Amino acid sequence: MARILIVAEHLNGKLNPSTARCVSCAQAIKADAIDVLVLADAPDAIAADAAKIAGVTKVLTIAHPANAHALAAICAPQIVEASKGYTHVLVPSTTFGKDLAPRVAALLGVAQVSDVMSVVDTHTFTRPIYAGNAIVTVQAPADQVLVATVRTASWPAAANGGSAPVEALGIAVELPTHTRFVGLAQGSSERPDLQSANKVVSGGRGVGSAENFAIVFKLADKLGAAVGASRAAVDAGYVPSDLQVGQTGKIIAPELYMAIGISGAIQHLTGIKDAGTIVAINKDAEAPIFEVADIGLVGDLFKLIPDIEQALG
C-alpha cells in the first residue's frame, strides 16, 4: 500500500506548477493516498490551490514564521516529521527540490532516487544518466521510506477539479538556527516562466552579442513565449544565467521550442529532450541540433527571423 507525501513548491504565495506534475507521477505509482504538504508562514491560499489539483487526497499545512522562505535546512526536519506513516516523499527536481531532497533523505537515513522519468512499479523507476544519453531502471528498497525527485519535464501537470480537505499540522521538532534567510536575488519578467512555458525561444552563441539578443526577445514576445539560452550564450555574457537551458541549467518540456543560433551540444539537448516540437535555425547545416529538430531552417538567422515575424502577422 503506497501512501505518498508531495512537498509543494511555491513562491510569493503562488503554487508552482511543478507540484501538479509531481501529482501526475504519484498517480502513476497508483498510490492509495496522495497528500500535499505546504510549508509557509501563511499557507492558506497556497493550500487552497493545491486542494484543487485532481488526485490529491488531502493537503497538510505547517504555518510558521521560519517557513516564510524555503530554506532546506529549516524545511527538512519538518518534512521528516510530517512523513511518518508515508511510504514515499516526492519533491520536484527543480532548484528547490534538488536542495531539499538530499537533506530529507539524510535525516531519514535512506538513499535518494533522482529525476524520476517514469514508473515501473511502486519502487522501480527510470531516470536519465550520462547527460541524458542513457536511461537506467533503478529499484529502491521496499522496506524503507522512498525519497525521490521528479523530473517535471517528463510529466504533464495534473488537471484541476479536485476538492481535497485541508488539515493544519503543528511542529513537533526543534528547528535549526544555523541557517537564516538573507535575501533573494531573482530576475523579473512579464514573459512566461521558462520552466513552465508552453513555448520557448532560445538563443545561442550564433546570435553574436547581447545587443543582437534583442531579436530573440522580439520573436518571443511575438509568440507569447519564454526566453531561454544555451550555456555558450550565457558564458559569453549575452544573457543572465537564469535563462540557461540544459544539463547545468533548466530542464524544460514546452510544446514548442525554437533554437536560434544554437549548435546543439549534448548538454543543451538534455534540457529539451521532452519538448513537443523543436524548430532549429542555424547557418551550419551540419549542426547537431538538426539531428533532433522536427523543423530545421539553414540560413542567416538575421534574415530568417524577420521573415518569420512577418509571416506571423
Q: How does this model look, in words?
A:
- The chain has 313 residues and is α/β, with parallel strands linked by helices.
- It has two domains: 3-169, HUPs (Rossmann fold); 199-312, TPP-binding domain (Rossmann fold, 3-Layer(aba) Sandwich).
- It contains eight helices and 17 strands.
- The chain has helices spanning 18-28, 44-51, 72-82, 95-108, 214-223, 231-235, 266-270, 301-312, and strands at 3-7, 10-11, 14-15, 33-40, 58-63, 88-92, 112-116, 118-121, 124-129, 134-139, 146-150, 166-169, 199-203, 226-229, 256-260, 277-282, 295-298.
- A seven-stranded parallel β-sheet has the order 7-11-6-1-4-5-12, sandwiched between helices.
- Helix 3 packs across helix 4 (95-108) and helix 5 packs parallel to helix 8.
- The radius of gyration is 21 Å and the shape is elongated.
- The termini are far apart.
- The mean pLDDT is 93.
Strand and helix layout:
Elements: E1 3-7, E2 10-11, E3 14-15, H1 18-28, E4 33-40, H2 44-51, E5 58-63, H3 72-82, E6 88-92, H4 95-108, E7 112-116, E8 118-121, E9 124-129, E10 134-139, E11 146-150, E12 166-169, E13 199-203, H5 214-223, E14 226-229, H6 231-235, E15 256-260, H7 266-270, E16 277-282, E17 295-298, H8 301-312
Parallel strand pairs: 1-4, 1-6, 4-5, 5-12, 6-11, 7-11, 13-14, 13-15, 15-16, 16-17
Antiparallel strand pairs: 2-3, 8-9, 9-10
Helix pairs in contact: 3-4, 5-8
